[in-house]
Specification:
Oligomer: single chain
Mean pLDDT: 83
Strand content: 25-35%
Shape: globular
Low-confidence stretches: 1-35
Largest sheet: 6 strands, antiparallel
Distance between the termini: 28 Å
Strand order of the largest sheet: 4-3-2-1-5-6
Radius of gyration: 16 Å
Number of domains: 1
């Protein structure tokens, strides 16, 4: 997809919240047309990254999984997904080589492994600190470009989705994003990807 088509869809449509599956996210503003564009756009990124979609896990009340995706306008899209298996979490990370605001790109990195017991306990604590299922879908801070941070979660048969524009660089403390960024930083640190998320060459976290 070229820049003329992808950029308006990604950075304008993303100003709307997302509703998907049996659990309606908190503080949503929906439009059927925009919602359909969002579904298609996220599915294209996730399909290129070759990871299962989280909403499918809602059929299993024992399933618990979370997925973070960072889409910089001028940087590679990355995804880090974790899923609980007893007391241990598995981790899958992916990186595409495109400039996410202009093209999806190709899959250039893929890692799949289990976290250690210590890392799994640390992750569990960060998830509890975030209180994700009470987090508003959108905090109202929007921009025309920058970087979009998308976070999904499934637990006890419920699905939730949250997005934050420029989460690490646009007043994160005032926006109450400390717990959100702590969890995202942990996922990036443990991802084993060769590159951290960047926008215009600057590290985001």
């Amino acid at each position: 997809m070229n820049a003329v088509l992808l950029t308006p869809i990604l950075w304008c449509a993303l100003t709307w919240a997302f509703t998907y599956g049996p659990y309606s996210p908190i503080q949503t503003t929906t439009s059927p047309g925009v919602e359909a564009q969002l579904d298609l756009l996220y599915e294209k990124f996730e399909a290129q990254m070759n990871v299962p979609e989280l909403p499918e896990l809602t059929e299993d009340v024992n399933a618990e999984a979370y997925c973070m995706m960072i889409l910089p306008t001028w940087g590679n899209a990355i995804l880090v997904r974790v899923q609980r298996h007893g007391r241990i979490y598995s981790l899958s990370s992916r990186r595409l080589d495109g400039q996410a605001g202009f093209e999806i790109g190709k899959l250039v990195e893929a890692k799949d492994f289990e976290l250690s017991a210590d890392d799994s306990r640390a992750l569990e604590q960060l998830i509890q600190n975030l209180n994700f299922f009470q987090l508003a879908t959108d905090d109202g801070v929007l921009g025309a470009d920058g970087d979009e941070w998308l976070f999904q979660g499934v637990s006890q048969g419920k699905y939730h989705f949250a997005k934050r524009w420029c989460a690490s660089s646009y007043n994160p403390d005032k926006r109450g994003l400390t717990a959100f960024l702590n969890l995202c930083r942990f996922l990036v640190d443990k991802s084993a990807l060769s590159e951290r998320p960047k926008n215009k060459g600057h590290k985001l976290i």
